[in-house]
Amino acid sequence: MIDTSTDRARERLAAALGSRRWVDEVAGRGPYDSVAALVEAGDAAARRLTDEDLDEAVAHHPRIGERASGDGTAVRLSADEQAGLGRAEEGLDAAIARGNAVYEERFGRVFLIRAAGRSRQEILDELQRRLKQDPADETAEAKDQLRQIAALRLGALFEEDA
Q1: Closest alpha carbon to 104 in 81, 77, 127, 79
Q2: What CA–CA distance (Å, rounded) separates 79 from 25?
Q3: What is an example of a GO molecular function annotated in this UniProt entry (predicted)?
């Protein structure tokens, strides 16, 4: 049984997806019989993210290719996810940094992508593709990326409770 009513559980939920409304919704539907049930509920709630939820959640994410500042569970998770990109590659990292700047200018927020399971080149390719999208399509894609990140994080954060 996964009890989502505790302060510790709410902190872990916030680390999975940093939107207060999302945390309240997922926590309020608990307890959950399994991690899979929690992930399913989190996924369903993430499919209803508002633009405000997206902005709030993205504020907790570092730029891709940059280290998260501070401490806490969300910072550790971001560092772990980006560490999976492999060793730094000067040319790719510079291109990602330039793309991040263009993205932020165009869309007004940090480029968000599920880094887990992707290489630096794949990240750059996705960044370049997404820069060509219209704002509404890109907002929808950013919400979907956030949903994917949350699902992975929920599984990792609550597996010990199962």
Answers
A1: 127
A2: 27
A3: 2-oxo-4-hydroxy-4-carboxy-5-ureidoimidazoline decarboxylase activity
Q: How far apart are CA 12 and CA 17, in angstroms?
A: 9
Cα separation, 113 vs 102, whole angstroms: 15
Would you say residue 141 lies in a domain?
A: yes
Structure token digits, residue 109: 């927020």
13-60: per-residue pLDDT in tens?
A: 999 999 999 999 999 999 999 999 999 999 999 999 999 999 999 987
What is the average pLDDT score of the chain?
89
Residue 57 belongs to a domain: yes
Q: Is residue 33 part of a domain?
A: yes
Residue type, 67: R
Q: Cα(130)–Cα(138) distance, rounded to whole angstroms?
A: 7
What's the rounded Cα separation, in Å, for the pair 37 and 70? 31
pTM: 0.87
- Smallest CA-to-CA distance from 154 within 1, 9, 25 is with 9
CATH code (residue 23): 1.10.3330.10
Residues written for the chain = 162
Our measurement of the distance from residue 99's CA atom to the centroid of its chain's CA atoms, rounded to an integer in Å, reads 19
Residue 132's domain comprises 7-161
Specify the number of domains making up the chain: 1
